Amino acid sequence: MNDEQMNALLAARALTAAVTPLSTDCGRVCGHACCQPDETGRGGMLLFPGEEALYRGLAGFAVTRTDLMGAPALLLTCNDHCQREERPLSCRIFPLLPVLREGRVGVVRDRRGYEVCPLLPSGLGGFRTDFVEAVRQAGEALARVDAHRCFLNRLHRQIAGFADLL
Ligand code: SF4
Ligand code: SF4
User: Fold this and answer.
1) Which of 35, 44, 74, 161 has a 20 to 30 A CA-CA distance from 87?
2) What are the angstrom distances between the C-alpha of 142 and each of 54, 82, 152?
3) Span from the CA of 73 to the centroid of ligand 1 (angstroms)
4) Angstrom distance (rounded) from CA 5 to CA 11
5) 116-127 pLDDT per residue, tens
6) Residue in 125, 137, 95, 128 with CA at minimum distance from that of residue 112
7) What tens digit of pLDDT does each residue of 19-63 get?
8) Ligand 2 pocket, residue 81 CB under 6 Å
9) Residue among 94, 111, 120 to mutate when testing ligand 1 (max atoms within 8 A of CB)
């Protein structure tokens, strides 16, 4: 991984480090549903390219291989709790995602979260504006680097399969 890739990732993580979807702790509404294991007993968040380096030797996390639209990708699993500064970018921006369209960065709701996150049906207007803006700015940082741009594009191709949900 090169410095440019890591710097963009660190910038995106920093931009989304302190913002939250709502003014109050949204986890109180849903019992922190997005931190619970799935029906297979195994949670997991996709890591952005190179992000695995930040979890090497960190207790409570495991990295496993997966596939994202035919390309190798890595999944981070956790013990259902973490320090705020340890959260991977996927958790920091959930349940939103930056999207690259016609050279611009926008923000959409992440359809993969529809079944767990009660905030998604309300639309983008239901989220704190600083949270939405931080996700957009994180997307701008990522969009400058090929590996992150490709990753985001593959992610959107994957979630296009959930088109009937939102
Ligand atoms: S599932 Fe949605 S409402 Fe619940 S903690 Fe996660 S982001 Fe917040
Ligand atoms: S890493 Fe932290 S925020 Fe992400 S799912 Fe695990 S406990 Fe939740």
Assistant:
1) 161
2) 17, 24, 9
3) 24
4) 10
5) 999 999 999 999
6) 95
7) 999 999 999 888 999 998 776 656 689 999 999 999 999 999 999
8) yes
9) 94
The per-residue pLDDT for 103 is 86
Instruction: Check pocket membership of 35 for ligand 2, CB cut-off 6 A.
Output: yes
Q: Whose C-alpha lies nearest to ligand 2, atom 2?
A: 82
pLDDT in tens, 58-115: 999 999 999 999 999 999 999 888 999 999 999 999 999 999 998 899 999 999 898 8
Question: Residue 133: in which H helix or E strand, if any?
Answer: helix 129-143
If you measure from the C-alpha of residue 38 to the centroid of ligand 2, how many angstroms do you get, rounded to a whole number? 13
The H or E element containing residue 67 is strand 61-68
Integer Cα distance of 166 and 72 in angstroms: 27
Contact 90, 142 (CB under 8 A): no
